[in-house]
Protein backbone atom coordinates (compact mmCIF):
# COMPACT_ATOMS: atom_id res chain seq x y z
CA UNK A 1 0.00 0.00 0.00
CA UNK A 2 1.19 3.51 -0.77
CA UNK A 3 2.10 5.67 2.22
CA UNK A 4 0.26 9.00 2.39
CA UNK A 5 1.17 9.86 5.98
CA UNK A 6 1.66 13.64 5.91
CA UNK A 7 0.37 16.59 3.93
CA UNK A 8 4.02 17.65 3.65
CA UNK A 9 5.13 14.48 1.86
CA UNK A 10 5.07 14.06 -1.92
CA UNK A 11 2.38 11.42 -1.50
CA UNK A 12 -0.22 13.92 -0.39
CA UNK A 13 -2.50 15.06 -3.16
CA UNK A 14 -4.27 18.17 -4.39
CA UNK A 15 -6.73 16.91 -6.97
CA UNK A 16 -8.74 19.28 -9.13
CA UNK A 17 -12.02 17.74 -10.25
CA UNK A 18 -13.15 19.62 -13.34
CA UNK A 19 -14.60 19.17 -16.81
CA UNK A 20 -13.02 19.78 -20.18
CA UNK A 21 -16.03 21.76 -21.41
CA UNK A 22 -15.77 24.24 -18.51
CA UNK A 23 -14.00 27.49 -19.47
CA UNK A 24 -13.34 28.33 -15.82
CA UNK A 25 -11.61 24.97 -15.43
CA UNK A 26 -9.29 25.70 -18.36
CA UNK A 27 -8.28 28.98 -16.72
CA UNK A 28 -7.92 27.35 -13.32
CA UNK A 29 -5.57 24.68 -14.61
CA UNK A 30 -2.90 27.36 -15.19
CA UNK A 31 -3.46 28.59 -11.62
CA UNK A 32 -3.11 25.07 -10.26
CA UNK A 33 0.11 24.52 -12.21
CA UNK A 34 1.58 27.76 -10.82
CA UNK A 35 0.63 26.82 -7.26
CA UNK A 36 2.18 23.38 -7.73
CA UNK A 37 5.55 25.09 -8.22
CA UNK A 38 5.10 26.90 -4.89
CA UNK A 39 4.19 23.69 -3.03
CA UNK A 40 6.75 21.08 -4.16
CA UNK A 41 5.93 18.82 -1.20
CA UNK A 42 2.53 17.98 -2.67
CA UNK A 43 1.44 16.08 -5.75
CA UNK A 44 -1.13 17.77 -7.94
CA UNK A 45 -3.51 16.01 -10.30
CA UNK A 46 -6.08 17.13 -12.84
CA UNK A 47 -9.11 14.88 -13.27
CA UNK A 48 -11.79 15.48 -15.85
CA UNK A 49 -14.87 14.13 -14.09
CA UNK A 50 -16.29 12.88 -17.37
CA UNK A 51 -13.15 11.39 -18.93
CA UNK A 52 -12.17 9.76 -15.63
CA UNK A 53 -15.69 9.02 -14.40
CA UNK A 54 -14.59 5.55 -13.27
CA UNK A 55 -11.99 7.14 -10.93
CA UNK A 56 -14.29 9.88 -9.64
CA UNK A 57 -16.99 7.35 -8.85
CA UNK A 58 -19.68 8.62 -6.51
CA UNK A 59 -17.97 11.87 -5.51
CA UNK A 60 -20.61 14.58 -5.55
CA UNK A 61 -19.29 17.39 -7.75
CA UNK A 62 -21.78 20.26 -7.82
CA UNK A 63 -19.64 23.14 -9.07
CA UNK A 64 -16.23 23.86 -10.57
CA UNK A 65 -13.49 23.95 -9.60
CA UNK A 66 -13.85 21.32 -6.88
CA UNK A 67 -10.72 20.31 -5.00
CA UNK A 68 -9.81 17.24 -3.04
CA UNK A 69 -6.84 17.61 -0.70
CA UNK A 70 -6.06 14.30 0.97
CA UNK A 71 -3.50 11.81 2.15
CA UNK A 72 -3.72 8.19 3.26
CA UNK A 73 -5.01 9.22 6.68
CA UNK A 74 -8.00 11.13 5.41
CA UNK A 75 -9.47 14.08 3.59
CA UNK A 76 -8.24 17.56 4.50
CA UNK A 77 -10.58 19.38 2.12
CA UNK A 78 -13.21 18.42 -0.43
CA UNK A 79 -15.33 21.08 -2.03
CA UNK A 80 -15.55 24.01 -4.39
CA UNK A 81 -12.95 26.74 -4.11
CA UNK A 82 -12.86 30.27 -5.44
CA UNK A 83 -10.61 30.02 -8.52
CA UNK A 84 -7.84 32.35 -7.35
CA UNK A 85 -4.21 31.41 -6.81
CA UNK A 86 -3.93 33.10 -3.42
CA UNK A 87 -7.08 31.40 -2.12
CA UNK A 88 -5.65 27.98 -3.01
CA UNK A 89 -2.21 28.86 -1.65
CA UNK A 90 -3.68 30.04 1.68
CA UNK A 91 -5.78 26.88 1.93
CA UNK A 92 -2.77 24.63 1.33
CA UNK A 93 -0.64 26.57 3.82
CA UNK A 94 -3.35 26.38 6.48
CA UNK A 95 -3.74 22.63 5.97
CA UNK A 96 -0.06 22.13 6.79
CA UNK A 97 -0.48 23.62 10.26
CA UNK A 98 -0.01 21.18 13.16
CA UNK A 99 -3.24 19.68 14.39
CA UNK A 100 -5.10 20.06 11.11
CA UNK A 101 -8.16 17.84 11.22
CA UNK A 102 -9.01 15.25 8.60
CA UNK A 103 -12.22 13.46 7.90
CA UNK A 104 -12.27 9.75 7.31
CA UNK A 105 -12.03 8.65 3.71
CA UNK A 106 -15.08 7.47 1.88
CA UNK A 107 -14.24 4.37 -0.17
CA UNK A 108 -14.16 6.43 -3.38
CA UNK A 109 -11.56 8.94 -2.09
CA UNK A 110 -9.38 6.22 -0.64
CA UNK A 111 -9.48 4.24 -3.89
CA UNK A 112 -8.67 7.38 -5.88
CA UNK A 113 -5.51 7.99 -3.84
CA UNK A 114 -4.46 4.38 -4.27
CA UNK A 115 -4.87 4.55 -8.07
CA UNK A 116 -3.31 7.97 -8.77
CA UNK A 117 0.35 6.95 -8.28
CA UNK A 118 -0.02 4.54 -11.20
CA UNK A 119 -1.50 7.24 -13.48
CA UNK A 120 1.26 9.84 -13.99
CA UNK A 121 -0.56 11.18 -17.06
CA UNK A 122 -3.01 12.86 -14.67
CA UNK A 123 -0.34 14.50 -12.53
CA UNK A 124 0.48 18.17 -12.99
CA UNK A 125 4.22 18.53 -13.23
CA UNK A 126 5.62 21.94 -12.29
What does this protein structure show overall?
The chain is of the alpha+beta class and 126 residues long. The chain has one domain: Glutaredoxin (3-Layer(aba) Sandwich). The protein is built from four helices and five strands. The chain has helices spanning 23-38, 53-56, 85-95, 107-115; strands at 13-18, 43-48, 66-71, 74-80, 123-124. A five-stranded mixed beta sheet has the order 4-3-1-2-5. The longest helix is centred in the N-terminal third of the chain and has 16 residues, at 23-38. It is globular. It starts with 12 loop residues before the first strand and ends with a strand. Residues 1-9 have low confidence and may be disordered.
Amino- and carboxy-terminal Cα gap? 26 Å
- Outline the low-pLDDT stretches: 1-9
Number of domains: 1
CATH architecture: 3-Layer(aba) Sandwich
Quaternary organisation: single chain
Overall SS class:
alpha+beta
Strand order of the largest sheet: 4-3-1-2-5
The total of beta strands comes to: 5
CATH topology: Glutaredoxin
Return the average pLDDT rounded to an integer. Answer: 85
CATH superfamily: Glutaredoxin
Give the class-level CATH name.
Alpha Beta
Shape category:
globular
Number of helices, where a helix is a run of at least 4 consecutive DSSP H or I residues = 4
Fraction in beta strands: 15-25%
Q: Would you list the SSEs in sequence order as H and E?
A: EHEHEEHHE
